[in-house]
Each structure stands twice: as C-alpha cells, then as structure tokens.
Amino acid sequence: MKISTQSVENSQATLQIEVEPGEMEESLDRAYHHLVKRVGIPGFRKGKAPRSVLETYVGRDGLQREALEDLVPRLCARAIEEQNMEVIAQPQIEIMELDPVVFKAIFPLRPQVELGDYHSISIAPPPVEVSDEDINNAMDRLRERHAVWSPVERPAKFEDLTTVDIEEEVKETGLKRNQRQQLLVVKGSLFPLPGFVEHLEGMAKDEEKEFALAYADDYRFKELAGKDFRFKVKLIEVKEKHLPELNDDFAKSLGQSMDDLESLRNSMTDNLKKAAEEMTRREYERKVLEAVAGQTKVEFPSILVDQEIDSLLKERDMVFRERGGLEGYLKSLNKTEAEIREEFRPEANRRVTESLVLGKVAEQEKITADKAEVDAEIESMMQDAGDKAADLRKLFGTSQARHVVEDRLVTRKTVQCLVGIAESNASKENADKEQEEDSVE
Fold first, then answer.
1. What is the span of the domain harbouring residue 185?
2. SS3 letters across 245-306
C-alpha cells in the first residue's frame, strides 16, 4: 500500500491510502472463497461455483465491497504500526476511488495536554451568605406546602383551586372530549391552554360558560400551533387557600423534634447554610477548573466530544424515562436529535477538556486512590442504596465498576488539590497585602 499523510490536526491524523493491485487481487480472491460458501447459485453446489460465475451473480461491486470490508481494517492496522500512531478509536473511512482503490482514513489520536503553571493559580473562595430575606422566603414556602384548601361559596378568584367540568371541541375536526379537572386559577397559566384559567375568574358555583381559544401560529409544539378549540365549562367547586400561622403550634405539627418556632427557624437556617455552602463550593471549584483549563493547551479528536454528547443524551433518556425517554424529551422541546446534539456540543467540549486537564494534573501530582479508599467509597454508596444495596454490591464487585469508582475518587482528590493551591495562594496574597498596609501605617 502507498500512504500519504494529509494532515495531523486536533489529535487526528488523516491518511490517504492507495491499495496496491496485488493486494486488491489477493483480497478479492479471499472474498470469493468466503462468499462462494454462503451464496447459493443455481446449477452449482455451495462452494463450487467458479469465481467468474460468482462475480456475475453478485456483481463486481458486491465482490469488491466484501473484499474491502476485510482489506481496509487490515491496511489501517498496518498504517498505525508503520506511522507509529497512538490511536484511541476506530478510524473514519471514506472510499475515494475504486480503480485503483484509494481511501481516506481519519485516525483519532491520543489527546495532547500541556499544563500551564497551575501552581500559581490564586482564587479566593467567596463568602457564604444567608440573609434574613432568604430565611423568611423559605419559611413562606414551607407554609405554602402545608396550606389547607377549604370550599367557599363565592365566585372564583385568582389563586383559588377550582373543580370544573370541561367539554372541549377541536374546531378543525369536530372531535369532542369531556373531563373533570382541578385547576389552579393562576394568572398567565399555560394549562390547559393559554388564557383558559382567566375565563374561570369571576365564575360562580354551577355557572356555565362557553368560549373559544387558539394556540399561537408560532407555538413551540407544531402539532398544536394555530389550532382552534371551543370550550364549554361548568364550575363545580371553589376552594381558597389558608396558610398556617407561623407559631409554635405550626413548628410542633411538623414533627422532626421541633419544640417551637425558634427551633424551626434555626433548623431552616442551618439547612439553607448547608445548601448555600454546597452551591458556593461547586461554583468555586468550577472557577478554579476554568482558570487551570484556561492556561492549558489541550488538543483532542472530535470523537471524544461526540461520545460525551452520547452520554448527555443517555442522561436525558434516563431522566425522562417515565415521560417517553429521549424521544419524549425531544418532543417537549420540538427539536430533532441532530439539533439537540449541536446544542450539547459546547457543554460536551467543556467536559472533555476539564476531564483531560484533571487527568493530566492527577498524573503530574501522582494522585491515586488505593483499594481501601475504593472499598470505603462503595460502602458509603451502599448506605444510601436501601433495597438495592445487594444488587449494587454485586455490581461493584466487578473490576470495571470498581475502576469507575476509582476514577471518580481520583477526580475528586485532584479537584481538592487544585482548590487547595488556589485558596492557599489567595490567602498568602491577602496576608502579604495586609502586612504591607500595616507597614505603611
């Protein structure tokens, strides 16, 4: 074979390979011996038809395709060895010519990561703050969750809970549907149709009303865009919301060892602080990682981004499994898989970059996770597994699953290492600044 290297860019080597006539003929002969045993040709027993007869029966193109399916992978393996390439996945193949056979192969190579001076990163952790307003808002949300709905004999108002009988008719088809629903009369609600609940405001019990509504022509769900509906509704019941008073009795009613309102407020404050600390920690880690990645030169093949996009799509499929999986998710957004893949590309690119950077830092800092650490991490996961603990324990008994846990531990320790560097440098700079200010005074 003849090889010409077209380019090596972004950790991808593009080779143009021309197949020697002798190599192609040998491959065609192997393809003949393989096919003749599988293809039934009238007038011949399997395996006995001459090559010229088989070639006439399946066509020259059919025999050539069979030959190339065997030949191209073997030539790619030889090219990898001859060019001394570190390939991480199967190449992309494009047949360019057939006489002689010339094909292009794009080989994804091992990513290249050149770290900057990450030991100089200096970022001070932001303060964690929980204001009185945050606490009061959380207490109000708690009251909302424990609200009591009571029937009232008055016309419906906004923020009421109504029970209505609905007769719905699609104007274009005349298709009718009857149902009873509970609807919150919330201004601007899009359910069951934009503008629907506004018609309920002011209706009295047992009152009936007829009206027509339509979806906008540019509505995000194309199957509903521009459709007209006629409604006949009857108001069955109106309930108004009663919020519990914030007092000791309310605190005690929640259980959880709450003795009075003060203990409830203290507990709420602690929970908010923990949540704020966790959010702040994640944001701080992200900022440190972005700083380290920003001074790192990273080159990697596009296949890694495509694989990460596949992982993101699988995550959506799992999250939306009860609502139709990935297909339901795409339908809710009124987008194709190709469109959502392109939207995911920046996030996938960021994930791949940070993963490679963290891997290189871990290698440079000699960060590892030993067997005892992996065992402890698995045991920690088992404590929250409940009834699934036995199945998970069996799963994490495999070397592949343990390797996943090990990688996660190494990643976590590497992030902690970088955070420690950034925080230590910031603390030292702050101390030096204070010392200079004191000396000036």
1. 148-242
2. CCCHHHHHHCCCCCCCHHHHHHHHHHHHHHHHHHHHHHHHHHHHHHHHHHCCEEECCHHHHH
User: pLDDT of 6-50, one tens digit each?
Assistant: 777 888 999 999 999 999 989 998 888 888 888 888 888 878 888
* Cβ pair 146, 240 in contact under 8 A: no
Looking at the fold, whether 399 and 308 belong to one and the same domain comes out as yes
CA–CA dist 409, 415 (Å, integer): 10
CATH number at residue 409: 1.10.3120.10
Report the distance separating Cα 118 and Cα 365, nearest Å: 11
| 3-class SS of residue 15 | strand
Task: Name the phi and psi angles at 193, rounded to 5.
Answer: -160, 140
Q: Are residues 234 and 287 in the same domain?
A: no
CA distance 126 to 104: 52
pLDDT tens per residue across span 123-176: 999 999 899 999 999 999 999 999 999 999 999 999 999 999 999 888 767 678
Whole-angstrom distance, CA of residue 3 vs CA of residue 270:
67
Residue 121: inside a domain:
no
Cα–Cα distance, 388 to 96 (Å, whole number): 53
What value, to the nearest 5°, has the Cα angle with vertex 130 and ends 137 and 292?
A: 125
pLDDT interval class at 416 (50, 70, 90)? very high
**Residues 103, 152 within the same domain:** no
Give the Cβ contact number of residue 36 at 10 Å.
20
Task: Looking at the structure, tell me whether residues 227 and 319 fall in a common domain.
Answer: no
- 97 and 215 housed in the same domain: no
**Cβ atoms within 10 Å, residue 161:** 19
Give the integer Cα–Cα distance in Å for 372 and 337: 42
d(CA 241, CA 146): 10
Sorted by sequence, the CB contacts under 8 Å of residue 433 that are 6+ apart come out as none
Give the total residue count for the chain. 441
